[in-house]
Design brief:
By secondary structure, the chain is of the alpha+beta class. It is about 15% helix and about 40% strand.
């Protein structure tokens, strides 16, 4: 191997090593930040939602303004849990968590790499809270007239829970 070949090979190996060390350190830093975890792929089965089958908003007028409704959710786990993240399935919807007069801020859809921040919201055992959502029927413009289905997803340290609603946007 020529001297130039050895230099190029050394640069490549050195670059791979540096990138590997940086990736390891970044992973280590994010995993040690404490409390930043939530369960993404398991449904939180001990959360009872009313209405459990979802909510039908019926006809929603395009020009009628935003619609705000809420689901009731009860923690039937035998221990306190933590709400860690809130997302919605569309930019036309925001949602927040309300319990004992305390409420989170409104969160919406994550898009284009812009992720909602993690939160740390206590949900005591055997307590009831509201998932309050706001739907804007005009958010998509006139082309948004017609049926819609939306989902609010709450991520807890025990799993996720989906709150579904739909209806028809009318003129």
């Amino acid at each position: 191997m020529t001297k130039e070949g050895k230099v190029i090979l050394s640069i490549i190996i050195g670059t791979i090593f540096v990138v590997g060390v940086l990736a390891f350190l970044m992973t280590k830093a994010s995993s040690s930040s404490g409390g930043d975890s939530f369960v993404l792929n398991v449904e939180a089965v001990s959360l009872n939602v009313d209405p459990s089958e979802g909510m039908d908003l019926g006809s929603v007028s395009y020009g009628g303004g935003k619609v705000t409704k809420s689901f009731e959710v009860k923690n039937t786990y035998d221990h306190d849990i933590k709400l860690r993240k809130i997302t919605t399935s569309c930019m036309c919807t925001t949602a927040k968590f309300v319990i004992d007069g305390k409420e989170s801020k409104d969160y919406g859809m994550e898009m284009n790499g812009d992720l909602n921040p993690l939160i740390d919201f206590d949900f005591p055992a055997d307590s009831t809270a509201q998932v309050v959502f706001t739907f804007d029927p005009a958010a998509h413009g006139p082309q948004g007239i017609g049926p819609f289905d939306r989902v609010v997803t709450m991520f807890f340290d025990t799993g996720y829970k989906e709150f579904r609603f739909g209806g028809v946007v009318t003129k």
